[in-house]
C-alpha cells in the first residue's frame, strides 16, 4: 500500500454526487471482480464533509504501483471520464497513519424481515408481524454507496465504515469492493 490514486467526482448539473459515486464504486467492483484482485484497497477521504451519510467526492485507491497500474490499464473508468478527474499515481506520504475501511451490513427494515420470514416459513405477513416487532429496525448513520449487485441485479446500500486511526499498517486481503475487516489502508 505504498501508492495511491485519487478519483474526484466533477460537479454535474444532471447527476447528484451520490449517484455518480455509486456508479464509480460499481465500476470499481466489476473491475476488481474481473481481476480477482485482493491487493487493492479503497478509502473515502472526504466522507465526513457535508452530509453525514455521504462518502464525499473522492474515491482513493490504495495498492502497490504494479497493482494500481494493472487496474488502470483495464479501462475500468470508461464511461465515467466526463464525470471524474483521476490524479496521477503518487507515493503515500511518509508520516501517514492507517485505518481499516470495511463494509457493514445491517438488518434495517422490519417489513423486509417479515416478508423474508413469511416466505421461508410459509407464514402470512400477519403471522410474521407477530414474530418480528418494529423495534428490530435500526437507523444507520454510516455513509453508503447505492450499487447494483452483479449476481442478483438488485440495488442495495453498501455501508462503509472507516475504523479507528492506527500508527502501524496491518497487511491482509481486500474483498471485491476494496474493503477489508482487518487490512489497513493509509489515511492522510
TrEMBL record:
Pfam families (alphabetical): Cas_Csy4
InterPro entries: CRISPR-assoc_prot_Csy4 (IPR013396), CRISPR-Cas6/Csy4_sf (IPR042564)
Organism field: Halomonas flagellata
Designated gene of the protein: cas6f
Top-level division of the source organism's lineage: Bacteria
Protein name in the entry: Type I-F CRISPR-associated endoribonuclease Cas6/Csy4
